[in-house]
Write a structure and sequence with these properties.
The complex is a heterodimer. By secondary structure, chain A is mainly α. Chain A contains 23 helices and 2 strands. Chain A is globular, with a radius of gyration of 22 Å. Chain B is mostly helical. The chains are: A mainly alpha, B mainly alpha.
Chain lengths: 527, 691
């Protein structure tokens, strides 16, 4: 076992083990959580980068170039393996990068305390495990770890809403995970395997009763993940969770938890079941596509009518993940490529957007769409970054949002699925509907049109004024007193916006990076 | 003449120069002079870069810059992000960058003249718009043009919503909806379909080729329905910005933007990008043979070439929009509908597919640009100097702004296609094209259609005179205290039987030989009147019911109100205002105020009556609450045209230059480069030049 093979295990085990450190140190020191979390995520990020270099510099079939770690030295099909292939490595990079970026916010703005950072590291470890696991039962375990981490983080918010949202997430999320577990049970009955690679080899050859079991397994797994990914109408946990989680937590949850779940669904659909199996199962592809397409429309519609910005963006996630799920269901190479790109792109954009929302809530005191009036004038930098991200979310080129949409659209046309193609093209307008509403508030509605959200003094423009607002002696900012918008926060938001645009020129890079995985899915090739 | 392709960074530089200027403009927001200096500098640099490529392009060189060659990155699989300066692109880029130079001066004068807010945002967005417009011009494939098309919609949105009031926001919403429906939905869908079609016939490509993408024609043979869908989606996508009915209504609403925007963007850069896109679709994507090769088969009619429905829509648009323009009192709206009509000239010319008609259509892009920009600049100058927006308030304004209104007359004549002006040359070619097409009767058009289109062009030309001449007439040949009614504006659609014997306040329909009873002092039963009005509206006196919302007063004041409500009534023979009533010193104070109030209700009323008019005309009366237009008390001050005293040089210089440009295009089209460029384009597409 070479050195690199250890990396996947280290990436998963490291954060989880180090999650105990803040609590332990907390017995003696007050503020160590952030430093520990920073050190850990920096290490994780470096490791992820090294892993990516290894994986993407190699040539060959997906399975060959993947970095695989066999836990405890037990080889598959018996042992559990962690697989960093071309698909999961991208997700690992996203998780590591986002986790690092969010820390820039939480240092001053987010929930503090050592226990928070324990939960933070636990969640990061769980997400990395979920990304890399090569075993369907192990996936359930990581799903639960992620669920618990998320629960802990959401409930760290103030007030009863956070507790309620966390409980709602816990219950609904666990139901989802349990349904998934039932699906895994069926698969195990049908094939006798839990290893993904082994399952992928067995399933195409199934016949008779075993085939029925596998099909039932697919149904359970899809429904289970429809809950985790928050597809309409199983999305109800998600807006509450996003809205009531502390501002420092929402970016992490919004960008990563659903994204990694959607990744897991893709992994199961294309590595375990395979395109042929899904295509051969009556209505399976149609159901997947329909769920996705309906989510696109329902999510956007619900987003338009929200007044709270975080909630609006939460419903936007329902819609954007709908696009990804629909793309999965199209079962063409181009659509799958588009889904993966959009998965990454959406994670990135939502992380940036929720960070911006946090910064704005902290420095400007605005949380509702109406309160965003005049933002551009008073907070030009964060407003500008947020505008860029929102525009990227609509899919206006050049941006990562467009690249994903382009491939999904081409995939839909290739599959000659005109209805989905129509929904995808219309999704631009649907997204625009809520994005334009926010942009209009930020840029074209003078603040004077509404009552000032927090007093009148200390509103000179520029982010530096945010902290100075306290000097007005006006009403203190309650829970956020003493916190201010730092350069770091703004830098992270701006950096995300820049990345979202720059990646918009690199559609081809993704194509090349992901080519081995796309080929391994054995889908219909563009004619 | 041989084509050869040269890799050159200049197309990119031409796009980027104003994008980079945006940064400087924003950075120097504290120093207005420096900021405007950047605008001018960027405009000059952009024009210089574009013009430096002109000799090469005329000799058949095509300058190309591609992201893939420069960095090794493909934009998306199989499609490069590339810019190329070919003759068609040069036509548009040259036009936009040339006109921007003068617009940047004009914009400075206009925005300062009105002391507008958020000027930095305005100039930044303006520079960005030009960047994307040149990007559209130089885009070398459908995806690149899509990228810039979307960006153009995006960066012009702040300009439309500039005023930050609810009217501007609503117009902005409408603008976003229309343009993104066109770009993000239609255009993207069409692009994806073309991508898919070519990928079936060979390697997927979206790159423009003069005369049509070869693979696309091959692929269309196996799947004509998809190719037709792609064709119409692309046309519809570009048709939104070209304001082809029924996708036109954003344009009139976008007139809430400051006038430089209406002028350069909503008469040249943005809308022409739509017309330009249609040209790209016809000439460089599908080719001129495609519409006839894969006709639609319509039940009961037989095979209809694909271009016919487009041409019919455009011909309808250019006629209908001209008719609507007749009844617009707000000058900018009148010009907006005129733009709608003129853009359809281009679309109809392209849709006729005959080389000469295509030449005419391409030439109409610059011809209309010069003429319409002059008109908008004049309208803006009048707005800045006198806050007059309505044609009905412009009587005698020629005294106050002689040079401006003189330039307006030149622009109007160019629009109408009067010889020796730019508009004539292009319309001439359009008509010749229609006629020669009729002779040949190829290109998929039945002869009868060509004559119908030619007829529509001529009718619209007459209508052009009908809606622009009154402005010139009222400015120069009428005076503020003595002018006629504007029948098309003030009377109901279709006109109304008029009896000039009726006095204000008379019961309707009663022509009293004795002069009637005195205007009733007491409540004279307005309800009654409106009932009668409805019952026998054929005999209402000209619009007097407009003052219905006004309270009743004693006689002298009543008279004053009536006159103020309809300044134009003052000189209608036997009209109530022909006496001294408007001179009453005691009514001076209320005069101004009531003028705009009453005009407001007047417009509203007009709209109620003409249901075919654009519903959103209610903005007209909304506007009224902001401005106090019309002649000041005592009439217009007389200014000399030669001393440049009527406005600032920042506005007068551009107006003069652009008007001279319109004349130049008409007198020596051979020396103004556009005709030659257009001919080069036609030659590349059809194999032989027209001239």
């Amino acid at each position: 076992m070479s050195d690199v093979d250890l990396l996947p295990a280290l990436l998963v085990v490291g954060p989880i083990l180090l999650a105990t450190v803040p609590v332990l140190l907390g017995l003696r020191y007050d503020r160590t959580g952030w430093s520990v979390a920073l050190g850990t995520t920096l290490g994780v990020f470096a490791g992820a980068c090294y892993l990516a270099l290894e994986v993407y510099s190699a040539d060959g079939v997906n399975r060959e170039i993947a970095v695989i770690h066999e836990l405890g030295g037990f080889s598959q099909p018996m042992g559990i393996e962690l697989v960093a292939d071309t698909f999961s490595t991208l997700i690992v990079l996203l998780v590591a990068g986002t986790a690092l970026g969010v820390l820039a916010y939480t240092r001053v703005g987010g929930p503090r305390g050592n226990t928070f950072y324990s939960g933070y590291l636990l969640l990061v470890g769980g997400l990395l495990g979920l990304s890399m696991t090569g075993d369907v039962f192990n996936m359930f375990v990581f799903l639960e770890i992620v669920g618990l981490g998320t629960y802990a983080l959401i409930s760290s918010g103030d007030g009863p809403e956070s507790a309620f949202a966390a409980l709602k997430y816990l219950i609904i999320g666990t139901v989802g995970a349990s349904i998934y577990l039932i699906g895994v049970g069926f698969l195990f009955m049908a094939t006798g395997h839990l290893n993904m690679h082994a399952l992928g080899g067995e399933i195409p050859g199934l016949e008779g009763q075993n085939l029925q079991l596998a099909r039932a397994g697919f149904a359970f797994i899809f429904v289970g993940f429809a809950i985790k990914v928050a597809q309409w109408p199983l999305h109800s946990w998600q807006p509450d969770a996003y809205q009531h989680a502390p501002d420092g937590v929402t970016p992490l949850i919004a960008a990563l938890v659903s994204t990694v779940s959607a990744y897991a669904l893709g992994r199961l659909m294309f590595t375990v079941f395979g395109g042929d199996f899904i295509a051969a199962t009556p209505y399976a592809a149609a159901v997947v596509v329909t769920v996705g397409a309906v989510s696109v429309i329902a999510g956007s519609t619900l987003a338009v009518i929200q007044t709270d910005v975080k909630r609006m963006l939460a419903y936007s996630s329902v819609s954007q993940f709908g696009l990804i799920v629909a793309a999965y269901g199209l079962l063409t190479e181009t659509a799958l490529l588009g889904a993966v790109i959009h998965l990454i792109g959406h994670g990135l954009m939502k992380a940036g957007l929720f960070l911006a929302v946090g910064v704005i809530a902290l420095g400007y005191g605005a949380r509702t769409v109406d309160a965003y009036a005049g933002l551009a004038q008073h907070r030009p930098y964060v407003a500008g970054s947020m505008a860029v991200l929102l525009i990227a979310l609509v899919g206006i080129p050049p941006s990562i949002g467009f690249i994903g949409k382009w491939y999904i659209a081409v995939g839909a046309i290739e599959a000659q699925s005109w209805l989905v193609a129509g929904v995808i093209f219309l999704s631009t307008m649907l997204t625009l509907a809520y994005v334009a509403r926010l942009l209009e508030r930020m840029y074209f509605t003078p603040r004077s049109a509404l009552e000032s959200p927090r007093g009148t003094a200390g509103t000179e423009p520029g982010p530096a004024a945010a902290g100075g607002a306290l000097t007005d002696g006006g009403r203190a900012m309650g829970a956020t007193a003493g916190r201010r918008v730092t350069i770091g926060m703004l830098a992270v938001v701006a950096l995300t916006a820049v990345i979202a645009v720059v990646l918009g020129f690199s559609g081809d890079v993704f194509t090349e990076l992901l080519a081995p995985f796309i080929e391994s899915a054995e889908l219909e090739v563009s004619p | 003449m041989s084509e050869h392709v040269v890799t050159d960074p200049r197309p990119l530089a031409a796009v980027l120069v104003s994008a980079i200027a945006v940064v400087f403009i924003v950075a120097s927001y504290r120093y207005p002079n420096v900021r405007e200096g950047w605008s001018v500098l960027a405009a000059l640099a952009k024009f210089g870069i574009v013009a430096s490529m002109l000799p090469g392009v005329m000799d058949g060189t095509i300058y190309v810059w591609s992201l893939e060659e420069a960095t090794g990155l493909q934009f998306v699989a199989g499609v490069d992000f590339a810019l190329r300066a070919d003759p068609l692109g040069m036509l548009f880029a040259l036009l936009a960058s040339f006109l921007w130079i003068f617009t940047s001066f004009y914009a400075a004068g206009y925005m300062r003249g009105l002391d507008e807010h958020a000027q930095t945002r305005f100039f930044a967005a303006f520079a960005a718009s030009l960047s994307t417009a040149v990007g559209i011009a130089f885009a070398s494939n459908l995806l690149t043009i899509f990228v810039f098309y979307e960006l153009l919609s995006l960066v012009t949105y702040p300009l439309v919503a500039h005023n930050e009031d609810s009217e501007a926001r609503i117009a902005g919403r409408k603008y976003l909806t229309y343009t993104f429906f066109g770009g993000g939905v239609f255009l993207l869908a069409g692009t994806v379909l073309v991508y898919w079609l070519t990928s079936q016939a060979g390697e997927a490509t979206l790159a423009f080729e003069a005369g049509g993408i070869g693979l696309l024609t091959d692929a269309a043979a196996s799947d004509p329905a998809i190719a037709q869908a792609a064709f119409y989606l692309l046309i519809a996508g570009f048709g939104v910005k070209a304001a082809v009915m029924p996708l036109h209504s954003w344009l009139a609403d976008a007139m809430v933007a400051p006038t430089p925007v209406s002028g350069l963007l909503h008469a040249v850069a943005v809308v022409k990008s739509g017309a330009f896109g249609v040209a790209r679709v016809y000439l460089d994507t599908f080719g001129l043979e495609f519409p006839t090769a894969f006709p639609l088969s319509v039940p009961f009619v037989g095979d209809v070439p694909l271009n016919i429905p487009v041409a019919i829509l455009a011909a309808f648009t250019l006629t209908a929009a001209s008719i609507i323009a007749l009844r617009k009192d707000h000058l900018k709206r009148r010009l907006a509908y005129s733009t709608t009509a003129q853009l359809s000239y281009i679309v109809v010319g392209l849709s006729m597919l005959h080389p000469i008609a295509v030449l005419g259509a391409l030439l109409h892009i610059p011809a209309h640009a010069f003429g319409k920009l002059t008109l908008f600049f004049c309208a803006g100058a009048v707005h800045v100097e006198t806050h007059t927006d309505y044609v009905s308030e412009m009587a005698g304004i020629g005294k106050r702004m002689p040079l401006t209104m003189g330039a307006f007359a030149v622009g109007a004549a160019s629009m109408a296609g009067i010889p020796l002006l730019g508009g004539f040359v292009s319309k001439f070619y359009l008509l010749i094209g229609a006629a020669s097409g009729a002779e040949v009767a190829t290109f998929g058009l039945e002869v009868i259609w060509l004559w119908i289109f030619a007829g529509a062009l001529i009718v619209s030309g007459v209508l052009n005179i009908a809606y622009l001449w009154p402005v010139v007439y009222t400015a120069f040949f009428e005076s503020e205290d003595r002018h006629d009614a504007k029948p098309l504006l003030e009377f109901r659609a279709g006109g109304q039987p008029e009896s000039y014997g009726v006095l204000e306040g008379e019961p309707n329909g009663v022509v009293a030989t004795d002069g009637g009873r005195d205007a009733n002092g007491e409540d004279d039963g307005r309800e009654d009147e409106s009932v009668i009005d409805e019952a026998s509206d054929g005999t209402t006196d000209h619009g007097e019911d407009d003052d219905a919302p006004l309270p009743d007063h004693d006689d002298p004041e009543r008279d004053a109100y009536a006159v103020d409500a309809h300044p134009s009534d003052a000189d209608v023979p036997f009209g109530p205002g022909s006496s001294d009533s408007s001179d009453g010193a005691d009514s001076e104070h209320v005069h101004d105020h009531d003028t705009h109030e009453a005009t407001g209700s007047h417009d509203e009323h007009n709209d109620d009556r003409s249901s075919h008019d654009d519903k959103h005309d209610h903005h007209d009366h909304h506007d009224d609450h902001h401005h106090h237009g019309g002649a000041p008390m005592g009439g217009w001050e007389r200014k000399s045209p030669v001393t440049f005293a009527e406005s600032t040089w920042l506005m007068l210089m551009p107006i003069t230059v652009i008007a001279i440009g319109a004349i130049t295009l008409g007198i020596v089209p051979d020396y103004a480069v556009f005709l030659e460029l257009a001919d080069t384009i036609v030659e590349a597409v059809t194999g032989e030049g027209v001239r």
